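Components:
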Amino acid sequence: MRLRAQFGQTQRQVPRYPPEDGRHWLVRGAYWHVFGDTRWWLPLGERLRARLVTLLEAVTASQAPQHVAFPDVARADLASFADALTSLLEAHVPSYRHLPRCLLSHTGERLTAWVLASDPEAARETAAQIQGQWEAVLEGLGLPLFPGEGAEARWGLAPAAHGQEALRCPACGYAAPQPWATREKPHPEDEAPQPLTPVATPHASTIQALAEFLGIPESQTAKAVFLRTQESHPRLVFAVVRGDMQVSLPKLSRLLGGVGLEPADEDDIRRAGAVPGYASPIQVHDAVVVVDDLIPLSPNLVAGANREGYHFTGVNYGRDFQADMVADIVAAQPGDPCPHCGRPLEAVLAWPVTHSRGLATDVTYLTPEGKAATVGVAVADVDLAWAVAALAEHARVEDGLAWPPMLAPYDVHLIALRGGEEIAEAVYLALQDEGLTVLYDDRKASPGVKFTDADLIGLPWRVTVGKRSLKQGGAEVKPRQGEAEIWPLEEVAPRLRAWYAEHRDDAA
RNA sequence: CGGGGCGUAGCGCAGUUGGGAGCGCACCGCGUUUGGGACGCGGGGGUCGGCGGUUCGAGUCCGCCCGCCCCGACCA
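Structure:
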């Protein structure tokens, strides 16, 4: 490819991302263009992404994957995808003869494997296996990953300077993206239920004020959070967690079928029969009540009385209020106890690059015995944008990028300088004749610009042909992070071809 | 929905008594330069988010509207 005709300018400045962020270098190297929430994969970036996808697809060969184009669903929205999936399975998986199958869809920013198996457990195992193979590829490209789990999903997390918050246990290695992380829950002592008693609590409209006023720990209170679903007919959702904990909106959203949630306003709250500031699940109506699984185990809580200035003591789940759903809906915080070993979790920043999970379905197929069994469905995916951003962050060197040879968008960066134009053309052809891909800087620009761009783009080899190199007997050849040497012109192409034969085991 | 912030050149921004529409990067032309993001001179580019008001005069003051970002829980 001639740089003279290439679309995409390297950038001097990237106000958007600081230099320790991999995305900074993707933008500067003209791999990405970013505007607001929109990301373009420029020609260089698209080649990089294509190479990554090729490498990832290659390792799934043992699953005999078949390519499909599926709707692009965000990971959090998988639950709302259920109806469409049911329709697909009912039509195309009538019996055991049609299982197992592995489908690959490669939409925009995500490579997804859809695993259909004879039971949910087998599907999950296969998806996890594919995920493991993909993680091995990414690790082979220099990306360190640590495993995360939570909400029945597995994650491969790549540490990143400006990643998303994740929680990790330094003792046992448990980790998960923060909204999905779980924590060990306390086991409250059994107590005899006390009678439901109203108590005047003027001005105690926050948990903290309430706990102080009554002289009790926040853990003895129930916190009510009102939300509204983002649907054509919004539902009011009433989430209850213990006063010292916080609600995880993603967990709640998944329970409710993947709908979006937003804070409810005062009118919504009053319409359900509750009083803001003194609200509780007692006697509310026309609302979906979801309580954290710790609440039924916690006797004699203090909760709002749905009356201005009053709370109840002795609130007990089951007797005083019921829920439509009971599940883990708290968001673990740094310092909370690890669900596996109880040691404090610590916050780390990471991008969730790989992910796998089973999908719930009630579609059945006929077994060889003629009985109905549930189709197992699971997905594994790689977020290509985060993968590339994390790879860039780890491929970054002082003055630009340094891609591993397997991944680089081109094999050789060829630069023509003054006095070397014609010979550079010949080298360009010779390199291509050896099967190498070449990015050829034939622009009218100063040497400094060309060298700087080569550093920003970060190909494994740089070949410079100019008056000076010719005087010294050939072309200057420089590995991205090594010393430059002068090679005789006729040796350049064959030697680089030989190097790549050794350092890249794919035929692509 | 409520609270806060921001809308000025392609991008990032400055603009305090209310009177000049500017700076950096990018872009175009000419010349010099040519192995580490060169320099000089010249140039193009704007509904200052929109509408209305105050004023001799509004990017600037007032009102309304639109758009984007952050915050929202019994959250400090």
